[in-house]
Write a structure and sequence with these properties.
Layout (H helix, E strand, L loop, with lengths): L1 H9 L2 H21 L4 H28 L5 H21 L1
Length: 92
C-alpha cells in the first residue's frame, strides 16, 4: 500500500492538489494501519511534499512557456478560413 500511495504522489499531482495537510493525513492513516512506521512517516511526508513542489514548478514552467489562443485569435482564424474557402470556390 505504501508503494501504491508513493507512486500516486510521485506523479506530483496528488500533492499539488491535496496540499501538505492532506499528505500528512494520508500518511497518518497509513501509520494507523501499520503500513508505515512512525519513524519513516516524517521522511515520507517530506519526500512527497518535495515531489509535489517539483511537479508544481514543472507545471508552472510548462504553462508559462505556452501561448494560449484567445477567443479573438480563434475568431480571426475562422474569418481567414472562411475567406480562403470563399476564394477557393470562386476559383473553381
Amino acid at each position: 500500500m505504501k508503494d501504491t500511495i508513493e507512486k500516486m504522489f510521485s506523479l506530483g499531482l496528488g500533492v499539488v492538489v491535496a496540499g501538505k495537510e492532506q499528505v500528512e493525513k494520508t500518511v497518518e492513516e497509513l501509520v494507523k494501519k501499520g503500513e508505515v512506521n512512525r519513524a519513516e512517516s516524517k521522511e515520507l511526508i517530506d519526500r512527497l511534499v518535495k515531489k509535489g513542489e517539483e511537479a508544481r514548478q514543472q507545471m508552472e514552467t510548462a504553462t508559462a512557456d505556452r501561448q494560449w489562443a484567445t477567443r479573438e485569435d480563434i475568431e480571426r482564424i475562422h474569418e481567414r478560413l472562411d475567406a480562403l474557402e470563399r476564394r477557393d470556390r470562386k476559383d473553381e
